[in-house]
Write a structure and sequence with these properties.
This protein is α+β, with helices and mostly antiparallel strands. It has a single domain, classed as Tetrahydropterin Synthase, Chain A (2-Layer Sandwich). It is built from two helices and eleven strands. The strands form three sheets. A six-stranded mixed beta sheet has the order 9-5-1-4-10-11. The chain has a three-stranded antiparallel beta sheet with strand order 6-7-8, with no helix packed on it. It has a two-stranded antiparallel ribbon with strand order 2-3. Helix 1 crosses helix 2. The radius of gyration is 18 Å and the shape is elongated. The structure holds zinc ion.
Length: about 160
């Protein structure tokens, strides 16, 4: 393997609502302005790049669109019950039952909508998208911050 170089982009954001259940208790519905930072490792291509910054930002903006301004719900939670019926999605938690228009929710195949799980999905999707046309990439890091003090970081090797 040749010399590995990293490029990093940050400042790609999306806003979403969620709640996480833990120890039989469930948080109240609330939102975050999530910030994504992606670090891509690889060998330099003939143009002296790991990947064009604009291309990388374009991929990240595309990924953000799938969750932006939506309510994120977990399909596999033991404590949050999600029942989607056509136009309405009912969500039962320890605190009560919510009902949302289905077009406003995104149900994810995860146990809880933690920053760690969301970062894992993003990292996986980004890696799949990038490696389609970038054979020089060897490692993808995605950092997802839900506030200025709390962030999750996922690393995937190609
Ligand atoms: Zn939260």
């Amino acid at each position: 393997m040749g010399k590995q170089v990293a490029v990093e982009v940050s400042g790609i954001d999306f806003a979403a609502a969620h709640f996480v259940s833990e120890g039989g208790k469930c948080e109240l519905l609330h939102g975050h302005n999530y910030h994504i930072t992606a670090t891509i490792w690889g060998e330099l291509n003939p143009l002296g790049m790991v990947i064009d910054f604009r291309v990388l930002k374009g991929h990240l903006r595309e990924l953000c669109k799938q969750w932006d301004h939506l309510i994120l719900l977990p399909a596999k939670s033991k404590l949050i019950e999600v029942d989607q019926q056509d136009n309405q999605t009912k969500v039962k938690t320890s605190e009560g039952t919510y009902s949302f228009p289905s077009k406003n929710v995104k149900i994810l195949d995860i146990v809880e909508t933690t920053a760690e799980e969301l970062a894992r999905i993003l990292c996986n999707q980004l890696m799949e998208n990038l490696t389609k046309d970038h054979s020089n990439i060897s490692k993808v890091d995605v950092e997802l911050a839900e506030s200025s003090t709390s962030r999750a970081i996922v690393t995937m090797l190609v």
